[in-house]
Amino acid sequence: MKKGKKLYEGKAKIIYTTNDKNLVIQYFKDDATAFNNQKKSTIEGKGVLNNRISEHILSNLSQIGIKNHLLKRLNMREQVIKLVEIIPIEFIVRNVATGSITKRLGIEDGTVLKEPLIEYCLKSDKLGDPLIAEEHILAFDWATKKEIEKVKKMILRINDFMIGMFRGVGIKLIDFKLEFGRLKVNGKEEVILADEISPDTCRLWDSITDKKLDKDRFRKNLGDLIPAYTEVAKRLGILHEQSNVSAVNVTKLSSVKRKRK
Question: Per CATH, which fold does 86-206 belong to?
Answer without folding.
Answer: D-amino Acid Aminotransferase; Chain A, domain 1 (3.30.470)
